[in-house]
Amino acid sequence: MTNLETKYMGLNLKNPIIVASSGLTNSVERIKDLEQAGAGAVVLKSIFEEQINNEVLHLINRDPQILYPETEDFIWNYTRNNSITRHLNLLSEVKKETEIPVIASINCMSASEWTIFARDFENAGADALELNLFFVPTDPKKTAEEIEQLYMNIVSSVKRSTIIPISVKIGYYYTNLLSLASKLTTSGADALVLFNRFYEPDIDIEKLELTSSEIFSSPSDMRRSLRWTGLISSQLPKIKIAASTGIHDGESIIKHLLAGAQVTQICSTVYINGSQVIAGMVNDLNVFMKKWNFKTIEDFRGKLSYKNIPDPMLYERAQFMKYFAVK
């Protein structure tokens, strides 16, 4: 009999499948459906400070009569509080209606709001927090060290303000991801989510307009998270890893667990295939474990990580040598 239970940041999960922050997790009904389909946990739809600010600016710009600072302040406070209240009410209702762990997701622009939002979600019953942490660097004078220090400061301040576990969802645009991961751990992060899938621009040459590229991931996108899961889980064993992006089936989940991930996050595949894809993933895990006589996830977690394979260079290699060599 196989046992798919696992722990993530101290939380007990019935299996290592978490549905990532998205429109899939923005209502009680959808989350109940995901739980029934077999999800081990969910990350709530993220609250974006930028989106709140945009809503306020839209209201102000739409009505030229808003000239007084007091009126503008009222709109800012009302819109902000209303948005936060919606998210907190969703969290409270989900906690009442489901039994799986619920992780709140936060993305802010101003330093002070991170801790305010974090405390609000903690008080509303969140089991953990996921900090959606990345800023596109557009200032050529700002150094990488300065940007990374900003991340450390945010994680440290949230950690000091809360007692529930914290994960940090990052991208892969860094010179040394191992160094960043180590700094985030020292600052208080309990886990890393590898990786965030960012908005990416495209250009419509028929309309000469800037537009967005494909929003869904593809199965091939998992290669980046697979490499860094194998490396970070070996080099920094204290930090837990939630592998994300490009995970579309049970096979990709198994590969990331073998590389050392604690859990995996899925999103695009649920949009494309429906929540029933989760049951298939659970079945794939059971079949794999029975084939290799693994009783628990721990029996094979990290079995093919950087430190546990005969040739670690397979994780380090950056250039194609064999396949595209000139004969």
In the CATH hierarchy, what is the superfamily?
Aldolase class I
Mean pLDDT: 88
| CATH structural class | Alpha Beta
Beta strand count: 13
Portion of residues within helices:
40-55%
Q: What's this, in brief?
A:
This protein has 327 residues and is of the alpha/beta class. It has helices spanning 28-37, 49-62, 69-97, 111-123, 144-161, 177-187, 222-235, 250-259, 268-273, 277-291, 313-316; strands spanning 6-8, 11-13, 17-19, 41-43, 47-48, 102-107, 128-132, 166-170, 191-194, 201-204, 209-212, 240-243, 263-266.
Could you explain the architecture of this structure?
An eight-stranded parallel β-barrel has the order 3-4-6-7-8-9-12-13, surrounded by eight helices. The protein has a two-stranded antiparallel ribbon with strand order 1-2. A two-stranded antiparallel sheet has the order 10-11. Strand 6, helix 4 and strand 7 form a beta-alpha-beta unit. It has 327 residues and is of the alpha/beta class. The longest helix has 29 residues. It has a single domain, classed as Alpha-Beta Barrel (TIM Barrel). It starts with 5 loop residues before the first strand and ends in an 11-residue tail after the last helix. 44% of the residues lie in helices and 15% in strands. It has eleven helices and 13 strands.
Key terms for this structure?
327 residues, alpha/beta, TIM Barrel, eight-stranded parallel barrel, two-stranded antiparallel sheet, 13 strands
